[in-house]
Amino acid sequence: MEKINRRGFLEKSIALGAAGLLAPSTIKSAVMNPLQKIRKDDISLAQWALVQEIRDGKWKTLDFPKVAREDFGLNGIEFVNTLFEVPHVQY
User: Fold this and answer.
1) Of the candidates 6, 64, 84, 74, which has an alpha carbon nearest to the alpha carbon of residue 44?
2) Considering the chain, what is the average pLDDT of its residues?
């Protein structure tokens, strides 16, 4: 076990105090300045809407967020778990 001395105690106390002072301002800036402003009537795109393109190989499942944002200008997406490429193991 480490012996506690006055110098070590003061150094750690100052470091924790500074972290406590900086943390609220960091949290506040993240909350007050979101990266993307959410609109009241924002809608999402379900992956089933593009199921044929995904099955035809035009897009991969993980390209769906990019397609929804860039092609359709939407912020919300809904994935479909059956469209993920999962390896099947035979027993």
Assistant:
1) 74
2) 78
What global pTM score does this model have? 0.48
Residue at token pair 């800036």 = 29
Q: Which residues of the chain have pLDDT under 50?
A: none
Q: What is the pLDDT of residues 55-68, one digit of tens each?
A: 898 888 888 889 88
Q: Three-class SS of residue 71?
A: coil
Q: Helix, strand or coil for residue 38?
A: coil
Distances (CA, A) of 91 to 87, 88: 13, 10
CA dihedral 62, 63, 64, 65 (to 10 degrees): 90
Query: Which secondary structure element, helix H or strand E, spans residue 59, and what is its range?
Result: none
What pLDDT is recorded for position 13?
A: 80
Domain boundaries, the chain: 1-33, 44-83
